[in-house]
Each structure stands twice: as C-alpha cells, then as structure tokens.
C-alpha cells in the first residue's frame, strides 16, 4: 500500500474512533499517532517470518490514548482487517486470512490487557479515594468524595459497593447497563444472585477469603447472568472495604464486560481452526485432535487415518471455473461426512483438493476396503452445478494401526506417504500403510534428497556407452550415462540414479547438469582424422515435457561451443505420442534448431505407428524390456522374435532407423543384424567408458 493509502487508512481509523470514544487529542494529532500504528501493523502482516505478537503493543496504545470503548475496538478491528487484506492483495496472489486473523487477535488481546491494567489503576485510585473518605478530615473528605464520585459515576467499568452479605449498597450506571437491572431491582438481590450457577461456589470461596485470609483483593474471569438470563462474560476486580476501626465491612466489585471480546475471540478461534470454504476443521485442528486422541488411548485401541486427494479436480476448476470447483468442494465435504456416519470421526480439509478423515474410539476398527469403497461411491454421485453434472473420485492413503505409542506427526506422514504411493497406481485407488514398504520408501527418499549435495561434492560422474552400426561395427555415437559413487552404498548405476531423480522431481536439475557436462566433454573430442563421435542423451518423460527443455539445450550447446548436429536426444515415445503433451512441441523446435531427435521405448505399445509418420525423427530404439525378452540366443520362431522382426520391417517402411540396446551376446547381435536392425549398444558392442577414452576416436557415418 502506498504512503498515501496508509495515510488515508489512518484518517478513516481516526474518524471512526473519534466518534466512538472521547479522545483528548486534535484530529491531526490522532491521525499522526494512528498512522504510526498503521505502518507497524501493515509491515507485520507482510513480514516473513510472520510473527503477530508485536501487534499486541498497538492494541495497548489505543488504551494509552484513552480510546477505551467497545465500539472503538470493534470499528478499529473492522478498518484494520480491511486494510490488512488490501495490503496482502497488493503483495501476494490472495489475502492470507490466517495472517489477518492472527494479527487482529493479538491486537485485540493487547487492547484487553491495556484496559485491564487501566482498570487495576482505577481500582487503586478508587480504593485510595474510599479510604481517604473515611480517614481524612472533613475538608479532605469532601475532596476525596468528589474524586470518588467522579470515578464512580464516569467509569466505563461497572462498580458495585455491597456489604459482607452481598447486599447492594450502591451501584453506578455502567453496572446497571452491563447486567440489565435498575438500581431499584438490584436492591432485592445480592451479589451472588448475579453469578452463573457453575461459577457460584468458586466465587463464594474467593469472596470469603477476602475476610478470612490475609488478602484484600482478587481478580478473575467469570460468567455472570443478566436480567434477561443472557451470559455476561466479565473480568471481576474485587476489593475489601474496612470501617474506621480497620474491620472488614463490605466489598467493592468492579466489572469489565468482555462479552463482545469473548465472541470476537471465539470467531477468531473458529477461523484459525476451520477451513473458510467448507467449514471443516483444517490441518491444524486435526493435528491437535490427533494429539489429544493419542494422549488418552488405551492399550490395543486401533486408530484409522485416511488422507484423500481428489482425482483430476484441476480439470473441473480450469474447465468449468473456480466457482464450480468451490461448490464441488462444499458438496465433497458433506458427502465425506455422510460416508463416515456411524463412526466417531472427524472430517478435515487440508487445503486445495486434499481431505482427511480421523476415526477413533470405534468398538471395532472399520473395514478399510469397505470404507474406501463407500467414500468413492458417495463422491461418484453427480452434483448438478450451473447445469453441469460433475463428480469426482478420490485416491486414498489409509493408516490403520494400534494407537498406543504413536505420534501425531508420524501418523500424518505415514498417511501422506501412502497416498503418494496410491496416486501412482491410477485414479479412485486406495492403499493401506505398509511398514516394510514405508521403510524402503524412506530410504529411497533419503537417498534422493542427498542427490543435489552429491552432485555438488563431485560424487557423480559421466560414462559413455558406444553405439555401433551392426553391419560393420563402426562407432556412430556414445550415449551419456550417469554414475553415482555413493560413499556408503558404493557405485549406483545410471538406471537407478535416473529412477530416483524422476520419481522425486529432481530429474530436471540432474538432467541440466548431465547435459552441460556431456556437451562440454563432446566438444573436447578432436580426433586426428575423421569426425568425432556424436553424443546422445536419453530423456525421461518428465524432462521431455519440460517447458524449459529447448532453452536448457540451447544454453548447454552455447556454453560448450558444440554444434547442434553433434548432439542427439532420445524422447520416450509414450510421452511424445500423447495429444496433451508438450514433448511433441519440444521435439519439433529442437529439430528446427538442428538437434537430431530420436525416440525411445519403441515397440512398447501396438499403437506406436499411429503418430510416427507425423514426427520429424531419425531413429527409434526398441524398448529394452522387449529386447531382453529375446534372450541371449533368440529363437526366430518365438512370438517376441517375430514381433521384433515385423516392427523392424515396418519402421524401415516408415522411413527411420532402428536401434537395439541390451546387445549382450554374439548370438543376439547376429540375429538382430540378420533381421535388419541398424544399430545397437550393449556389452557385445562395448562397455561404458569415461570421456577421456573417446578424445582421439573418430566415428563412422552418423545415423
């Protein structure tokens, strides 16, 4: 928010509180004072890390400025809340309601503490006035009585003077307004008649202690009952009065009405712990509930926690609009509640399209298969919104295990890991937490998480596998492979490294590093005669669809000074063939740059040939699993061998070359050569070697 905007916000605030409370400042002075608080609060709501506690000081400053009416507090919260949301909207994608709520709660708490301290000070002044009225000379008595009468009459706090039996002697106007009784009606009541039934016994003890114990005051939060039987949440400050001889003869009870603040804090608390759209408990609330449940479980008790993710929810959001998505989320919340009817269950929304269900204290644990089926049956029923019948399914990760000794964060983590595994299996699937598999996954994630540091520490190296013409054995190219010299596990091969990086989202960073190093190595290959080998990199599905792939390749070539014709890339056929994939666009742009692109995983799907004629490719490599099924000594009559031979013939008819990996025996090499496979790689054709091994090697004709 600009300086002008903040000044205008301070001006609005000053106008609001100036009409709600008497402020002993000019309008200009008040605006300047409030402008400092506006700057402090708006800076707090944007701060990272966020800490709302300093907002309490701003609330206390209102009291210091004599702004002490309930109306002034309410208007302050309304104006500051709107200002904070506007500030967040200008600096972030959307207002952060949790930040605004926390800031206003601390502001209100600081204000309350300031008013309470003011009350204490007024009480002390009042007590001194009362004592002086009884002890001093007549002249001083008149002065003291005048001071007391001013405080008694003008105070916003309710004040009642009563005898030791609780009979009212005198009350001020604020006291009658807070409780709703007239002074005459109070004459027929006693102080304990105003206590809420559940508070009566405790308060009676506190009043009695003033007489029986060496204390002369107490303070407490409590609940009173008004004339209309409404609850009055109040802060009591009670002092003991003495006669001229020092004997106890009555009480002064001061009442601060906290009802509006209590309701406001209740609303803040609900907003902090509940999802604003669906009204469901949020992650924080479910975590607290889970901690509470685990803290009181008995031996053998089973707990069930489900973590759900709505399948393809973004399709509905993007296709039909966010308003349809929001309504569907509300319906989903209702249906999830319906799905667990009969269980002691809490349904929560974790944000976006994620939900959770906690089932506790059931006589028998729920059948998880039946529960998962019931949830997806409820969600499958179409909901008609703006004329569209929409429905969703859910992937569900379930943890069901003895609760004794478990920790809330660990249960939530187990449910999340299980959901992550389930989502890889398709839509509308569910899975149960498997401790053995979880141990393997944790080890795998730990290994993947250490990959960036391992690259930085030089634990990764590149090796190059020769690719040769099958007819004459000439070297055509080298495929770059990555190897990890892990300090504990030993060498990890290329396939293991790529699988780890692809499944954990680290493949793009690793791929950029590999491509830069490979281009740099290839640029240094300068044979004395002939052309140097081409360098080839096989990309994963994730890399192939990367919107920045073309830029990554362009930078790697430019930094190494390598001509585009010296680089070959292989993209997975299953990714390129998808209609909604960016891989096909990347393939065409790379080809226009001069980078020759081929396809990998050829033969995995019978529909491979549908799109092949439309793609600007030079060659395709058979899917490794298909080649491995040929065995070391292929049987020409086997179904696999016939399929490989047929695919080779069809590929040549379409107009591109065929490459086979896994050429690990002489018999396989001879058979693949016989059926017309153009090129290959594998143990029979040369093992992977470091870059230096190819520095003086020349290559034959390129593919």
UniProtKB/TrEMBL annotation:
Residues 301-435 form the GGDEF domain. Keywords: Coiled coil. PROSITE patterns: EAL, GGDEF, PAS. CDD domains: EAL, GGDEF, PAS. Residues 120-147 form a coiled coil. It comes from the Bacteria. Residues 144-214 form the PAS domain. Pfam families: EAL, GGDEF, PAS_4. Residues 444-702 form the EAL domain. InterPro entries: Biofilm_reg_signaling (IPR052155), EAL_dom (IPR001633), EAL_sf (IPR035919), GGDEF_dom (IPR000160), Nucleotide_cyclase (IPR029787), PAS (IPR000014), PAS-like_dom_sf (IPR035965), PAS_4 (IPR013656). This is Diguanylate cyclase (GGDEF)-like protein/PAS domain S-box-containing protein. It comes from Crossiella cryophila.
């Amino acid at each position: 928010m600009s300086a002008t905007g903040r000044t205008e916000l301070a001006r609005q605030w000053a106008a609001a509180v100036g009409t709600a409370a008497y402020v002993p400042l000019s309008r200009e002075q008040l605006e300047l004072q409030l402008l400092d608080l506006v700057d402090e609060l708006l800076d707090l709501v944007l701060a990272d890390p966020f800490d709302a506690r300093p907002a309490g000081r701003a609330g206390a400053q209102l009291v210091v400025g004599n702004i002490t009416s309930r109306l002034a507090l309410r208007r302050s919260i309304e104006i500051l809340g709107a200002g904070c949301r506007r500030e967040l909207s200008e600096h972030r994608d959307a207002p952060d309601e949790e930040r605004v709520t926390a800031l206003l709660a601390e502001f209100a708490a600081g204000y309350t503490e300031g008013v309470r301290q003011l009350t204490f000070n007024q009480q002390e002044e009042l007590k001194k006035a009362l004592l002086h009225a009884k002890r001093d000379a007549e002249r001083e008595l008149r002065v003291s009585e005048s001071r007391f009468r001013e405080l008694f009459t003008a105070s916003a706090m309710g004040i009642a003077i009563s005898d030791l039996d609780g009979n009212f002697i005198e009350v001020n106007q604020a006291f009658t307004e807070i409780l709703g009784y007239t002074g005459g009606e109070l004459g027929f009541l006693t102080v304990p008649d105003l206590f809420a039934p559940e508070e009566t016994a405790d308060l009676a003890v506190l009043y009695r202690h003033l007489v029986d114990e060496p204390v002369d005051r107490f303070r407490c939060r409590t609940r009173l009952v008004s004339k209309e039987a409404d609850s009055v949440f109040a802060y009591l400050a009670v002092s003991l009065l003495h006669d001229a001889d020092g004997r106890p003869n009555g009480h002064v009870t001061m009442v601060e009405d906290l009802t509006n603040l209590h309701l406001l804090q209740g609303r803040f608390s609900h907003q902090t712990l509940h999802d604003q759209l669906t009204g469901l408990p949020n992650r924080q609330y479910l975590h607290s509930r889970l901690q509470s449940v685990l803290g009181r479980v008995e031996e053998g008790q089973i707990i069930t926690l489900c973590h759900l993710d709505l399948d393809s929810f973004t399709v509905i959001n993007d296709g039909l609009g966010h308003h349809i998505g929001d309504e569907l989320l509300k319906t989903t919340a209702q249906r999830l509640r319906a799905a667990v009817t009969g269980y002691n269950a809490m349904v929560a929304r974790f944000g976006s399209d994620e939900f959770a269900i906690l089932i506790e204290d059931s006589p028998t644990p729920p059948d998880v298969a039946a529960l998962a089926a019931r949830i997806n049956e409820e969600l499958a029923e179409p909901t008609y919104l703006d004329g569209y019948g929409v429905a969703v399914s859910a992937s569900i990760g379930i943890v069901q295990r003895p609760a004794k000794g478990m920790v809330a964060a660990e249960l939530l983590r187990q449910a999340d890991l299980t959901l992550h595994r389930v989502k890889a299996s398709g839509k509308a699937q569910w899975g149960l937490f498997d401790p053995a598999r979880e141990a393997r996954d944790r080890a795998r994630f730990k290994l993947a998480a250490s990959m960036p540091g391992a690259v930085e520490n030089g634990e990764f190296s590149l090796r190059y596998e020769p690719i040769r013409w099958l007819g004459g054995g000439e070297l055509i190219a080298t495929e770059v492979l990555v190897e990890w010299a892990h300090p504990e596990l030993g060498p990890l091969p290329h396939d293991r490294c790529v699988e780890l990086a692809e499944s954990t989202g680290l493949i793009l960073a690793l791929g950029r590093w590999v491509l830069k190093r490979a281009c740099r190595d290839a640029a240094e290959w300068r044979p004395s005669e002939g052309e140097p080998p081409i360098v080839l990199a096989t990309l994963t599905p994730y890399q192939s669809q990367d919107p920045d792939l073309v830029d990554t390749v362009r930078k790697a070539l430019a930094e190494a000074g390598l001509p585009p014709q010296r680089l070959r890339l292989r993209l997975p056929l299953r990714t390129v063939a998808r209609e909604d994939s960016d891989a096909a666009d990347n393939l065409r742009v790379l080809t226009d740059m001069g980078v020759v692109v081929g396809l990998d995983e050829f033969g995995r799907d019978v529909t491979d040939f549908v799109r092949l004629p439309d793609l600007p490719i030079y060659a395709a490599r058979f899917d490794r699993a298909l080649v491995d099924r040929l065995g070391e000594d292929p049987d020409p009559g086997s179904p696999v061998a016939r399929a490989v031979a047929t695919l080779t013939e069809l590929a040549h008819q379409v107009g591109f070359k065929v490459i086979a990996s896994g050429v690990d025996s002489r018999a396989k090499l001879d058979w693949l050569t016989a059926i017309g496979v153009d090129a290959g790689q594998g143990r029979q054709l040369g093992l992977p070697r470091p870059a230096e091994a190819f520095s003086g090697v020349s290559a034959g004709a390129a593919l």
